[in-house]
Amino acid sequence: MSRSFAVVGVFLVWVGLAVAQDSEQFKPKPVFGKEARVISYVLDNNHYRKIKLNDSLSAAILVRYITELDNSKTYFLASDVKSFDRYKYSIDDLTRNENVTPAFEIYKVYDQRYKERMNYVLTTLVNQNFDYSIDEYYEPNREKATWATSKEELNEIWRKIIKSQALSLKLAGKKPDEITETLKTRYQRFAKTFSQFTSEDVFGIYMNSITEAYDPHTNYMSPKQSDLFKQQMSLSLEGIGAQLQSENDYTKIVRILPGGDAQKSGKVNENDLIIAVAQGKDGEMVDVVGWRLDDVVKLIKGPKGTVVRLMILPAKTGVNGPAQEVVLVRDKIKLEDQAAKKEVINYQLNGRQAKLGVISLPSFYMDYEAYQKGDPNYKSTTRDVKQLVGELKAEGVDGIVMDLRNNGGGSLPEAVDLTGLFIKNGPVVQVKNSSSKIDVLADDDKEIFYSGPLVVLTNRFSASASEIFAGAIQDYQRGVVVGEPTFGKGTVQTVLDLSRFINDDEPVGDLKLTFQKFYRVTGSSTQHKGVSPDISLPSAFDAEHFGESASPSALPWDVIRAASFQKTTDVNERVVAALNKSYQDRVRYDANLKKFISETDILRKNINENTHFIK
Questions:
Q1: Tally of domains in the chain
Q2: Range of the structural domain that residue 104 is part of
Q3: Beta strands 426-433 and 491-497: pairing type?
Q4: C-alpha–C-alpha distance, residues 116 and 536, integer Å
Q5: Is pTM beyond 0.85 here?
Q6: Helix, strand or coil for residue 151?
Q7: How many other β-carbons are positioned within 10 Å of the β-carbon of residue 342?
């Protein structure tokens, strides 16, 4: 999947929380209006969706901006939100006229409410001795909650929030005075973060509320974020190898990067929450709940070979579970660490010893710079996989599994070329632009490099180029897709440098714009729905909360005319039905499979659980 962040020691995904020290100092710079006008023009004329910034979209943008500031509905009052309706149908006209006033006027109210909450927490709540014998609960996910109508109602919400956090610290072994001190330090850090927010940050949140109303992958990057994005394009980095994002005041691990110590340790998992960071083997733990993401990153990143210790709340136990300390060694993470790898699994099949070759592919990569320089040894997915397949053939494997779990995508040409190793020749994917012009990307090589049994393994986080490959293998009936439904990202983005359109002494940012859409050779879009497996394994992640379909502004699924292609006879409905029956039979007697299904079911329930008892 193509994203607005690239490989770094710690990945960045910017969401959510916004704070400031003095709302009077937050005033729009003239360049903000210029950027807003250019972005609105580009969106109106070049976005794939072909929708205009109008009154209807203006209303949606207002809701999105309010939600970005206060997605937990714990700061604004209902009366505040009602007062913002004065901008409901004017954001479109104001934006075209270089006016970003709504961003800063709404933010001033947020600034005031945030200060009120922090003051209440620090002066009233952190020193409380909570009674855990009272039968009550707190629901941390408040997306569907209504806005509080009074400060007293907000006080009660915040009492439960602090009580829940105090209970989590108590379960982690903290003494009462330590709990008080930790909470005090935590919310003082909130106040410090409050003072570090800038007008550029306010503008960035506002502009992304506009761009993401078109689709979730169209984003504005501020000059600072743009520079960071360019730095992240380096082929080597130093860090722990994890992708982080801010979520409800926590720093969440959203992806483990192959090759980093986070992965090698086996002690860090996706959706774990980082609540404290320490340097070296003996450094003091620094509570980071409520910190800006970039400040947390500064603590975690460091020179190769140095030690960093993380205090995490494991995803399997949630925010109320006991914290665990993880010791990691920072390392230089190279592209080679993310390259395709193989292994051979020996197993019994119908009374004989069989061999299964497994190729793990974390991403679809290609060293374009080396290729353009004519380096004969340039790195690419297809070249690496072809070599690995050749080695597996030499070892006499009975079949090959292409493991694309957690593969977020990458190079489109590599997805096409890789498919070509397993089919004779023909179209692989269709690409349609906003003018409805369709290009067919095909494999022209008639050689089938591997013609044996083939399985493609997917999960909910297999996306973009992964979906192109899996979909093509399925459509050609060349192999069997096993696992979970994929992410459902079937769009293409390009990055536009706004300085091309704006002549100003102030630096300007970039716009990442969705301008094309993928389609399978059958004509079916991969967008929104993804690729459905032939054999479905249990999943802890449902489409309602994970994947493209979780975004309200995601482009819809649709169909175009099928390309002309010739299916193989390797796989048909009878074969798939037989394999599904075999799988269901195995579920009844295989202890390991039963355990996997049970653990997945527990994880799913934990993820979807939104009621935390605080007694």
A1: 3
A2: 16-226
A3: unpaired
A4: 50
A5: no
A6: helix
A7: 19
